[in-house]
Amino acid sequence: MKRYFRRILAVSLAVCMGTLCGMPGSINVRAENPIVQTMYTADPSPIVVGDTLYVYTTRDERRETASTEWNLMNEWRCFSTKDMVNWTDHGQIAHAQTFDLEGDEEEGDKNWRAWAQHVVTKPVFEDGEWKNKYYLFAPFNGTKIDVAVSDNPWGPFEDATPGKYLIDGGWGGGNIDPTVLVEDHGNPEDVENYDYYLYWGNPYLRYCKLTDDLLDVDPDTDGDGVISEEENTIDTRFSKEDNKILGEVRPGLHSFQTYGDEGYASFGEPTQGKNQTGKFPAEPSGSEQKRSAFEEGPWVIKHDDGKEGTDDYFMFFVGGRTPGETIEYSTGPSPLGPWTYRGLVMDREFGYSCIHPGVIEFKGRNYLFYLNEMLVGGTGSDRSVCVREFSYDENNLIVKETGDNVAALLEQGIEDTTKGTPFFSVDPVGTLNPYELNQAETICWASNLDGVTGGFNGTGKGVKTKAKAACTDIDPVTGKEAFWKSAALFGVAVCDIDNNDYIKVANVDFGDTRAETFRVSAACGEGLPATDLTEDDKGNVIFNPNCDTVSGSIELWLDYGTEDERQIGTVEITDTGSTNTYQDFTTNLNEEVTGVHDLYFIFRGKENAKLFNLDTWQFTRKEVPQPENPEPAPPAQSPVPSVTPAPSVPGESTKPSLEKPGRVKITSLKMKGKNKCLIKLKKVKNASGYQIVYATDKSFKKNVKKITTKKLSSTIKKLRKGKKYYFRARAFVKSSGKTIYGAYSSKKTKKIGK
Question: What is the pLDDT of residues 174-202, one digit of tens each?
Fold first, then answer.
C-alpha cells in the first residue's frame, strides 16, 4: 500500500455513480473477484487452520465515512472460507486503539493508520494441553509494530505487550507491513522447536528472529547458540531510535541490502523509476546507490519441493516505482537468504496504483491473494482483495502462465474494466451444506439487480455487514471501551439491504435427499424515519448501520441468470419489535430440491428504505417415511474359522498398517570445507525419508536444527567455527498424511575447525 513517507497520494473525491459492486447487463455466474463486496478491503494475509482458510485484511474507510484524508484505515478484519468461493465475514477483529497508548491521551494522541498486518498460529501448552493461540502483528502510526493475541482466529485480540511496542522508532525506520515466517524445520509435529522470523519495511527490508513466545526479539538471529559480533551490534544503517525493541535500544534488528548491485541481484531491477537512488537513513550523504525493485509488503513462505539444489524459501514483495506497484519475488536457501531475484509475478494493470501479496497453500493448491480497485468507487485508497491460483515448476519456481509478450508470470484475468464488474477468481474446492446453520454473511457475491447505481462513496445499493451488538466492556489493557471485540463476542449480521439487492452463495449441495423447508433468522423494525444521518459533499447519505428497517421478502432462486434458473420459494419478513431483535421465519419450498446449485437470496421491499437485517439461514430435508412393520434384520452369522481372505482387487483401495521404521545408523561424519559437514546414513528398509538433527547442546534441548531428506547423504552448512556439534538421525515413514518416526541413532560429535 502507498504510504505517507513515500508520497502523498493525490486522489479526487469525484462522483462515482455506483455501489461497491454492481452487475451491469447479465449476472456472471463464474465470477467471484473481488472476494469481498460489502466494503473496501486491502492487504490480504492468509493462514490455514484445519479445513478453513482465513484471510485478514485492512479496511479502506475513506469513502464510507466521507473523509477527505487520502488514507483512512483504522481497523483489521477477518474473512474465512472452506471452499474458496464463499467467504464468511467475521467482522472487525482489532483496531489501532487495541494497542496501549504511548502518548498523552489528554493531548489528543491516539493510535491510527492500521496498515498491512499478519496473523500467525502458534501451538501453546496451557492448562495441561496443547492449544492454538493467534498472534496479530500489526503496524500503526507509520512508526510502530506490535503484537496482539487471541484464543480464536476471529478474535477478540488483546495487546500482548502493554505499555511497550515490539518494534518502535520514527518515520525513518520504515516500520510497516510485518510478516512472519514459521519455520518448522521439516517436522511440523515438533512444535517446541519451531523458529519464527519477522520481516517488514518500506523502502527498506528489515528482519529479526523472534523469541519462542513471539513477544520479543531473539538476538541469536541465526540460532547457532552463539551471539556473534554482528548479532551483538545494533543495525548501523539506522539510527538508535530505529533500533528500539520493547522501548529500549538493543541489538537484534537487521536489514537486507536493497541498494546497488547487491540489491539488484537480490530483489531485481525496478520496472519503473530505474534511475532512482537511495540510501539507508543513517548512512552519510553521498552513499546513495541505485534502488532495487523492493518497495514494501514482504511476504515470506517456505515451499519445500524435497529436491536438493533448489531454494525452498520465497520472498514475495511489492515492487516497482510510482505511479504504480507490482508483485515480485526472490528465493533463498534459508530464512535469512541469501536472496536471488526470480521475477515479476504480477504487474499493475489498467493503471491501478496499488497491489499487495499474500501467498498460501490450501487443500493441495497454491493461491496468490492481491488487491486492485475493481469495486465501484475504487481508487488507490479504496481497494479490494482478490485471489488467483498458481503453481510451481520442476525447479521450484513459479510457472509462467502468460504469453511471450507479457513480462509478468501471472495476470489478474480482468476482462471488463467497468468498476463493479466481477471477474473469475478460482475454482471451488468444496461445496456448502445447506442443512447446517449458515451465516447470512457467508457470501460468494453480493450486488443489486438494477446494476451499477448508488452513491459515490460506495454506500448506496448492495448489502453491508455489522456486528449484531456493541461491546461496551472495558479493555483490561487500554482501559477503554473495547468496541473492536463486538463482532467476536456477538457475531455479524447482514444489514443495509435495499430493494433488489441480492446475495449469491455458490456450490450449494442439496444432496439426494430433497430439501423441503427454509428457515431464516431476521430482525425488522417499524420503518421509522432515519435520524442522525450524514451526507457527503454530493448529498449522498452515508451508510448508517443503526437505521430502522422495514418489512419485505426474500425470494429463493437457484442458478439465477442461467437457462436453468428457477424460484423455489419466498419467505416474508415482518416486524420483530426492533431492527436488532432477531426471530425465525420459515417457508415451505415450491418444489423439492436436490443436487448442486448456486443459491440466490433476492430481497424485495419498499423503494428508498432499508429492509430487515439477516443473521442465519438453514434448509431442512424432507423426512423419508419409515415402513410401519419393517422386516427384521437377519441374525448375525457366526464367524467361520480358517477362512482365507480374498485377494485384493487390482485398483481397489487398501490401507496397509503403518509400521514404525527401523533405527538408522550414521556411517560417516566428515568435514567438507571450513564450515560444512557431510553426513552419511545407512539405508532403512521401507523408510520414506530421514530427519537429521544437530545442535551445540548435547542434550538437544537448545539451538536445535533439523533437516529432512530422502537421500542417504546430506551436507550441513553454516556451522560455526570452533564449536562442537552433536548429530543424530532417525528414519520415518509416511502414509495417508501420517508420519511415524523410528528411534534416533546414537549420537555423533564433530568439532568445527577454526
Answer: 999 999 999 998 888 888 889 999 999 99
